[in-house]
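Shapes recur. One chain:

:::
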Amino acid sequence: MKPICIEKNIQATPEQVWKAITEKEIMKQWYFDIPDFELKVHTTFNFYEGEAKKYHHRGVMKEIIPYKKLKHTWTHPSHSQGNSMLTWELYPDAQYTKLVLTHDGIENFADAGTAFSRENYEVGWNEFLQTLKAFLEKQ
């Protein structure tokens, strides 16, 4: 299955975008609160979605190229045996930074039901990237 790939042009430097996607104190302002997030290959991080903490997310850092690329696994251990890969890539331009988010392997969550459908991920990632863009551009 073709991965989800979303591009967003953000009027911010690659350094600003990088900090927003890799520094846990900044991340919790627009994304999730991930207390055990560590920018180091092979480290594992966990977080829960929403107040009810219904969805457990787990990731393992796979590749880190500062200001260019962050790649980690994306799993839902409480709902699925599946595994997917999330890649954040930054491309500088004179006026903005292009952020490309690629989520590969969503079909591996078929055992988790309709809440984990491709459509739900597409909506969710589009909303998160729009929130990130608004967060960075208001600073």
